[in-house]
Amino acid sequence: MNNRCWNTTSLVASLTLALLAGSALADGKMGTATVKGKISADGKPTPGAPIAMGADKFCLAANPKPVSPQGKLIFADGTLPYAFVYIKSADGKLDLGSKYTPPAEALEIDQSGCMYKPHVAGMVAGQTMKIVNTDDTNHNIHSLPTKNKSFNFSQPKKGMTKDLVSAETFNNPEVMVHIKCDVHPWMSAYIGVLPHPFFDTTKKGGEFTIKNLPAGKYKLAVWHEEWAPQEIDIEVKDGETVEKDVKLAKK
Ligand SMILES: [Cu+2]
User: Distance between CA atoms of 139 and 116, rounded to whole angstroms?
Assistant: First the structure.
């Protein structure tokens, strides 16, 4: 092969890699399998009092109707929001045999209506975060990790934002990192930190979808703050969609 031909080959290879890198996850092994399903509860949540926001006039005005703690929410058909569904291991290994670069987009946490939005989320270890205060009141966001560095700062004014670079966020896998507000004790969020992007949080109808899984055998895990965790063995093949509905028992 002459030099020119070799250079063209290298260029094509580089361009292909650059295109693949557009997903920001190209270095980790991605596949074409999907696992999806519904998470529901085996029973009713233990009753909890509505959140008392009377200590902060802004919070009270923002929530004229009583607000239930998010962990107690359940849809009429028994399905659950705020369940974190993730691949815990592949054939007993946590790293899935590949290194996954975090996505370029930050995980955004908004302090809005004196609640965290989102209440439950996942991120790839080392992903950046953006903390926003859209409320006209003071919030103090405080993370309580056990395997990562903590952050703890105030955002006293509406419209404040803070970008946390990778070194300031969570670099080690940890399910879950609890986040709370030191001003409003009811404000609570949970972040699942994983070494890969194969996770989802249930929303309407308790539905989750995990896409782009490489073919293989995995331990699928479900976490919910109110209900007992569960792990299920699954096997996925290229291009296939596996459906798994999971019912969580009382803790
Ligand atoms: Cu607060």
Answer: 11
How far is the centre of ligand 1, averaged over its atoms, from the C-alpha of 11 (Å)? 52
| 68 C-beta neighbours (distance < 10 Å), count | 14
d(CA 188, CA 182): 10
Distance 139 CA to ligand 1 centre (A): 4
Q: Which CA distances in Å does 50 have to 162, 171, 179, 180, 226?
A: 30, 35, 20, 18, 15
188 Cα: distance to centroid of ligand 1 (angstroms): 9
User: For residue range 26-66, what is the model confidence (pLDDT) as tens digits?
Assistant: 578 899 999 999 999 999 988 888 998 988 999 999 998 88
- CATH number assigned to the domain with residue range 27-248, chosen from the 4 options 2.40.160.20, 3.40.1180.10, 3.20.20.150, 2.60.40.420: 2.60.40.420
CA of 148 to the centre of ligand 1 (A): 22
pTM of the model: 0.88
